[in-house]
Amino acid sequence: MKTENLHLEKQGTVATVTLDRPKVLNALNAATFTELDFVFDELAADSEIRVVLLTGSGERAFAAGADIRELAAAEGGEGKAFALRG
Fold first, then answer.
1. pTM score > 0.90 for this model?
2. How far apart are CA 17 and CA 7, in angstroms?
3. Which SS3 state, helix, strand or coil, does residue 9 take?
């Protein structure tokens, strides 16, 4: 799976996962959660990885939290389901 909202780098036994949505302070949207699920599953299956660092790109924030624009556009129980996923 190609990721658009984060980057994965492996060096020896250390993996660095970088949230890469600096224009929105790395706010977490549904696509980012899907990518995180995929990458963390991949890392869990990699017997060489012992440490995972989670960081954010940009200079202003690690992660602003939920992507409020996406939540505002959610219908019915979608917002609640998104919040529970986070």
1. no
2. 6
3. strand
What gap in Å lies between CA 49 and CA 26, rounded to an integer? 25
Contact between 3 and 38 under an 8 Å Cβ cutoff? The reply is yes
Structure-derived torsion over alpha carbons of residues 33, 37, 42, 48, reported in degrees to the nearest 10: 90
Closest CA to 53 of 28, 19, 25: 19
What average pLDDT score do residues 61-73 get? 82
Residues 38, 4: contact at Cβ < 8 Å?
no
Tokens found for residue 19: 């949230």
Contact assessment for residue 36 and residue 6, using Cβ atoms and an 8 Å cutoff: yes
